[in-house]
Write a structure and sequence with these properties.
Oligomer: single chain
CATH topology of the largest domain: Rossmann fold
Number of domains: 2
Strand content: 15-25%
Largest sheet: 15 strands, mixed
Number of helices: 15
CATH architecture of the largest domain: 3-Layer(aba) Sandwich
Bound molecules: adenosine-5'-diphosphate
Distance between the termini: 28 Å
């Protein structure tokens, strides 16, 4: 294993796997902290997907350290801590606390912080994160149900999550290339800055950053940061010349789409699916909380549809707020567990192809299905591949979509890529 990664949510992990696969590394995604002796097969890169974005920092630290240690024990030369390209975190973390803990683990004093993913419109300039042409704080992320992002300054957001000093490698340096970036990182570390936000607005800059950090033990960022890393191993003769991405045969069985994301892109995709005639059932957390809507009701409805159906809780910020007011802070979990229950019942009923929208939602579904490793297959939209569950008697195909990813016809076209 050359690269080991710890991702703070499931769809983010998949996105990173896809990036590494595209860049020629054979990549396996593992779900949850791997047991001692876990068989990583002959993977060049392993991405461990945790569900640690919004849990208590102590628990996130514990899971992340254990996952990172397992990867190091299996021979990983370099570690990535992967978080969302919109820097999704709560005021307490967990980006800062986990980055700190992993720096301690690898015994280094500095790591870069770079969530840029220009292909999906995430760019960083003067330490401010943009989503398309909007500052993060003006983007729909300010209404996220779990991690509302109301400040676009990554330096400020991260400084509130760590006791270490946060610094900035500005775009003026980044555009000069790998040698200048490497020098700036070393100067910042000499000044006592530990977590270095790095500007990036284009893929060639991410590749230069990748080259500049070839000797660093820990790298933190979004999946974009992985663009330039495989080339380092290739240059060092440790990785074969580009391998083509793997395509698997999807298992036979019925298909269903489940959406628990309230992100704007997912809401557009739900609308797009309905406009194109996909049968769709909206579920309401308050009715679920009252027992007025049950898993059995929803499963019966899905089964009664001739065409592939969509079950969604996706809704606008106002309805999310009223669900949170009535159900308290666990409103999100109520919906996640409900959709996970629907997925399990449908799997038991012979469904084998699942599209799931929402990072946390995907985490809950995969956990409930008992899937512990995924192979990466064909890409549907940037950052969203089909995957196949590994080491199961009854493999399942899963497309796990981060809320904000994918085009408007995602729920319709996803099946064509299988
Ligand atoms: P994304 O990838 O868009 O961030 P997630 O699944 O990670 O999506 O997060 C969405 C959160 O919102 C989940 O915890 C989900 O259960 C919760 N949620 C979904 N629908 C509703 C709703 N109608 N009201 C309140 N919370 C909801």
């Amino acid at each position: 294993m050359l690269l080991g990664a710890v991702a703070d949510d499931l769809t983010g992990a998949t996105d990173l796997c896809l990036m590494l696969t595209r860049e020629g590394m054979r990549t396996v995604q593992v779900i949850g902290v791997p047991d001692a002796g876990f068989d990583f097969t002959d993977a060049d890169a392993v991405v461990v997907a945790l569900k640690s974005r919004t849990i208590e920092p102590e628990r996130a630290i514990d899971l992340s350290r254990r996952a990172a240690q397992a990867l190091l024990d299996a021979g990983a030369h370099q570690l990535i801590f992967k978080y969302c390209s919109t820097f999704d975190s709560t005021p307490k973390g967990n980006i800062g606390p986990v980055a700190d803990a992993l720096l301690d683990l690898v015994g280094e004093s500095a790591a870069i912080v770079c969530p840029a993913f220009p292909e999906n419109g995430r760019t960083i300039y003067q330490g401010h994160l943009f989503v398309g042409n909007l500052l993060l704080s003006d983007s729909p992320m300010r209404h996220h149900p779990l991690t509302p992002m109301t400040d676009s300054s990554l330096v400020r957001v991260l400084q509130a999550q760590t006791d270490r000093t946060v610094g900035l490698i500005p775009h003026a340096t980044v555009r000069k290339g790998a040698t200048a970036i490497r020098a700036a990182i070393s100067e910042a570390a000499d000044r006592g800055e530990s977590l270095l936000v790095v500007d990036a607005v284009a893929n060639d800059e991410l590749r230069a950053i990748g080259e500049a950090v070839s000797d660093m033990k820990l790298i933190t960022g979004g999946s974009g940061i992985a663009l330039g890393l495989p080339e380092n191993f290739r240059r060092a003769g440790q990785l074969d010349s580009a391998r083509s991405s793997h395509h698997f045969n999807a298992p036979e069985g019925r298909s269903v789409a489940l959406a628990g994301s309230c992100s704007e892109a997912t809401r557009r995709q739900v609308k797009g699916a309905m406009e194109r005639g996909m049968p769709a059932l909206k579920i309401d957390p308050i009715e679920i909380g009252q027992g007025a809507t049950t898993i059995e009701d929803v499963v019966a409805w899905v089964r009664s549809q001739e065409a592939t159906a969509l079950v969604y809780s996706s809704t606008d910020p106002q309805e999310v707020r009223s669900a949170q007011e009535q159900l308290g802070p666990h409103a999100g979990e109520v919906v996640e567990q409900f959709l996970a229950g629907v997925a399990v019942a449908l799997r038991d009923d012979g469904y084998r192809r699942f599209v799931v929208a929402g990072g946390e939602t995907s985490g809950a579904v995969v956990q409930a299905l008992g899937v512990n490793a995924l192979e990466i297959g064909a890409e549907i939209d940037p950052g969203v591949p089909w995957t196949l569950s590994l080491s199961d008697d009854q493999p399942i195909s899963l497309a796990l979509k981060s809320g904000n990813f994918g085009a408007e016809d995602f729920f319709i076209k996803a099946w064509n890529a299988l």
